[in-house]
């Protein structure tokens, strides 16, 4: 049994807080002592993942590994990383530590296989997540089609994501909602919230549609991995 969870955070800080909140709300606990013990490294020095993948920025690999090692040294027994794009570096991180690093992309794929395999699935994400193929790797393995955004829609979604980070999402939410409308018209049946900022925005705005939320999935997996139970009728 794994009792102490470590969170590689700071990508962004709001998404890190959101994961922590979800784990607390979703844990079937009646007192403080029944919750998970959690260590968070809110490492805001991690360079932007998408910028690097697109060839425009610094490689975040070393800072990601640094966070993982810091958490392991602090006593964490397993780790999660609430950033979809950062999973491009998953293998680089995992091989440098001696504790499990749960894979949010793989767990989301397993969720799709169980509940949505026959559906037409679209991906809402950063351009880095889309172009790096972090979801394609797992979807292709199971022969599941994944529909990605065209250039214009991706630009609107990316703008909304970075505006959330800046705290100014109101200036781009209109175009983002229009993207959702257009995707629904194109017969996309379910959308992956493939950026943890979008998971946070969903909590705030309650977008209409059928969504798969990787942040929710990894929160539940983190609870189960510790041997604890998930509380029903919370954040479902």
List the helices and strands and how they pair.
Blueprint (H helix, E strand, L loop, with lengths): L3 E6 L3 H14 L10 E6 L6 H5 L7 H13 L4 E3 L9 H5 L9 H12 L5 E5 L1 H6 L1 H8 L4 E2 L3 H16 L6 H13 L4 E5 L1 H10 L5 E2 L1 H12 L11
Parallel strand pairs: 1-2, 1-3, 4-5, 4-6, 6-7
Helix pairs in contact: 1-11, 5-11, 8-9
Descriptive tags:
single chain; 236 residues; Rossmann fold; 4-stranded parallel beta sheet; 7 strands; Asp_race; amino-acid racemase activity; Asp/Glu_race; Asp/Glu/hydantoin_racemase
Identify the overall geometry: globular
* Strand percentage: 5-15%
Cα-to-Cα separation, first versus last residue: 25 Å
Number of domains: 2
| SSE-based structural type | alpha/beta
In the predicted model, the low-confidence regions spanning at least 5 consecutive residues are none
- Round the Cα radius of gyration to an integer and report it: 17 Å
Keywords: Isomerase
Organism: Thermohalobacter berrensis
Pfam families: Asp_Glu_race (PF01177)
Protein name: Aspartate racemase
């Amino acid at each position: 049994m794994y009792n102490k969870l470590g969170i590689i955070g700071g990508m962004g800080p709001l998404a890190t807080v959101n994961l922590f909140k979800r784990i607390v709300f979703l844990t079937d606990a009646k007192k403080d002592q029944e919750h998970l013990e959690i260590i968070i490294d809110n490492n805001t020095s991690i360079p932007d993942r998408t910028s690097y993948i697109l060839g425009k920025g610094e490689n975040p690999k070393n800072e990601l590994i640094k966070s993982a090692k810091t958490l392991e040294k602090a006593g964490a027994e397993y780790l999660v990383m609430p950033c979809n794009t950062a999973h491009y570096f998953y293998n680089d991180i995992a091989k440098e530590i001696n504790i499990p690093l749960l894979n949010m992309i793989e767990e989301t794929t397993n969720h799709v296989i169980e509940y949505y395999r026959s559906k037409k699935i679209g991906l809402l994400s950063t351009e880095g997540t889309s172009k790096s193929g972090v979801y394609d790797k797992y979807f292709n393995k199971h022969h599941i089609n994944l529909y990605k955004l065209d250039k214009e829609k991706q630009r609107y979604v990316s703008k909304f994501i970075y505006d959330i980070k800046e705290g100014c999402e109101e200036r781009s939410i209109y175009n983002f909602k229009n993207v959702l409308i257009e995707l629904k018209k194109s017969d996309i049946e379910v959308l992956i919230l493939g950026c943890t900022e979008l998971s946070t925005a969903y909590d705030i705005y309650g977008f209409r549609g059928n969504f798969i939320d990787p942040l929710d999935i990894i929160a539940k997996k983190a609870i189960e991995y510790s041997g604890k139970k998930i509380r029903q009728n919370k954040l479902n």
